[in-house]
Amino acid sequence: MTGRTVPALQAEGVAKSYDGRTILEDVSLTLGQGELVSLVGASGGGKTTLFNVLSGLEPPDRGRVLLNGEDVTGAPGQISYMLQRDLLLPHKKVLDNAALPLVIRGREKREARAEAAAWFPQFGLEGTEELYPAQLSGGMRQRAALLRTFLGSRGVALLDEPFSALDALTKRELHQWFMGMMDRLDLAVLFITHDIDEAVLLSDRVLVLSGRPGRVAAQVSIRPPRPREMDFAVSKEFLDYKKAVLSLLES
């Protein structure tokens, strides 16, 4: 993470209710540029609701959201948001799917395709530009969706369980690749996961969202620098971090 004084993303006192039921109450968090922070908590605890507020899809009842110090509360299209499913458009080629955020922002199609194509080798997608999503494996589809998210970001991305639908071997491969990419892109990522191993392996910090309504109850800082060797996942230090997160979730 860089030495910037202004957080890449900041939530201040966010509250949200539906039909008289409070889902989030006084949620505050910060995310530094180049930092990856995981958000864990029980199902139905408000994680997706928080992402909807942070991305501007829904306005909060109270509080505000800042992107690089700018108030973007309730303004969609400012922060990239990747859902659990890749949601690639089946009728568009992989290159056109990746370039879509640039086109939406007003870039000429040829220019947008050229800029997106320049990133394909780094995302392990070289040679897939003219294919359609149905011709890709699950792991490759997720890489294409991550590239689209990156190209649509302003340095900040929200990822909602992007690896949960993958088999164990593909997930392990993508974890290794993703850690290396994070180190190169200097992208700030807030990451929802139900996989505590994944949270400890990938994150600089793990935030625990708990209670009804949901609040950020605690955080665990993961000290070994990224990118981490996969052997870290079988070390005593890793297990100690995992126990700490599980203890906070259970309490």
Structure, described:
β4 and β5 form a beta hairpin. Strands 6-7-8-3-9-10 form a 6-stranded mixed β-sheet, with helices on both faces. With 251 residues, the protein is an alpha/beta fold. The mean pLDDT is 91. It starts with 8 loop residues before the first strand and ends with a helix. The chain has helices spanning 47-54, 94-104, 109-117, 138-151, 168-185, 196-202, 236-250; strands spanning 9-18, 21-31, 36-40, 62-67, 70-71, 80-82, 156-160, 188-192, 205-210, 215-221.
Question: Brief overview, please?
Answer:
This protein has 251 residues and is an alpha/beta fold. The chain has helices at 47-54, 94-104, 109-117, 138-151, 168-185, 196-202, 236-250; strands at 9-18, 21-31, 36-40, 62-67, 70-71, 80-82, 156-160, 188-192, 205-210, 215-221.
